[in-house]
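Posting here for the record, re: adenosine-5'-triphosphate.
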Amino acid sequence: MLPLRVRDIAKTFVMHLRGGLRLPVFSNVSFEVAAGECLVLGGPSGVGKSSILKMLYGNYGVDAGEILVAHACRPVDLAKALPREVLDVRRLTLGYVSQFLRAIPRVPALEVVADPLIALGSDRAEALERAEAALARLNLPRELWSLPPATFSGGEQQRVNIARGFISDHPILLLDEPTASLDAANRAVVVDMIEEKKAAGTALVGIFHDEDVRDRVASRVVDVSRYSQRRAGQ
Ligand SMILES: Nc1ncnc2c1ncn2[C@@H]1O[C@H](COP(=O)(O)OP(=O)(O)OP(=O)(O)O)[C@@H](O)[C@H]1O
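Prediction output follows.
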């Protein structure tokens, strides 16, 4: 069973506060992702790349089609799953590195990073040790580790976010521009981390605006504009 199969998904946003104005974005988007592959969603701004990623994570509703995830050895259709099932899939199967960290008040960076492992039942000391290693690898200054990330710079927050997203061993990992606010040295670290996930058999789906990063990590690129429901200038 492939980790992820997307069949004919479609999205139209309906603006209820604008008299039900309909904004069709894409339809009939289909792709599959095998273990060890990094599939990149490409195409110009506004074609729906982030929307697809949010649909894959269960944050946006799906108007049509199927999102089949291999979860605990059985296929689960995230397009129709109940909220409880979506949460279970996220806990065990589906990781997500969003563009920005949602900082939790008063929780130190180290615990923010270790939290997914602790939630999966790992030993707390071991989880904190792995979190330290991840933050050190991403060059986050040691004096920040015990502070809550709310006051960190954009790049520092993003490195906490990446460390948290990469720490667990979810079979599928979604990446929404993980390198956008990073300098060249840290971008190179993240490229290495993505390559290690691929080598470990993780199925990745990502958006990368940085062409150099995209060329280095992409196994395949799906051009989302092929499925666009928009006409030029619309
Ligand atoms: N929650 C929403 N409500 C209404 N419209 C939305 C919503 N989310 C996205 N859209 C619209 O859907 C279209 C696709 O947006 P999306 O962010 O998925 O594009 P993208 O390809 O990721 O763009 P970019 O490369 O600029 O980040 C845009 O026209 C956007 O305005």
